Amino acid sequence: MIRHATVQRTAEIVMVLGIIALCQPWNFFLHRYGLTIIIAGLLTFMITGWVGPRPNQKATGATERDGHS
């Protein structure tokens, strides 16, 4: 299973690569699709942040607040 943090880190790297592709002057193809690469990374980052990992009950302390042991 793919970890949440790994997907977010990959999305960040894709966004940085999109910025580099947009700013470089040598390859027109990369310059043309630089913004598309940035948007793909941004959407991936936002979706993984929205969905996120499932919270662990012990880590959130839900049993302690509810009075269950």
Compute the CA-based radius of gyration. Answer: 19 Å
User: Distance N terminus to C terminus?
Assistant: 31 Å
**Helix- and strand-based class?**
mainly alpha
Number of domains: 1
The biggest beta sheet reads:
none
Give me the count of strands. Answer: 0
Averaging pLDDT over every residue, what do you get?
Answer: 83
Oligomer: single chain
Shape: elongated
User: Strand-residue fraction?
Assistant: under 5%
Helix share, percent: over 70%
- The total of helices stands at 5
Transmembrane segments: 12-29, 35-52
Keywords: Membrane, Transmembrane, Transmembrane helix
Characterization of this structure:
The chain is mainly α and 69 residues long. It has one domain. The protein is 75% helix and 0% strand.
Outline of the structure:
The chain is mostly helical and 69 residues long. The chain has five helices and no strands.
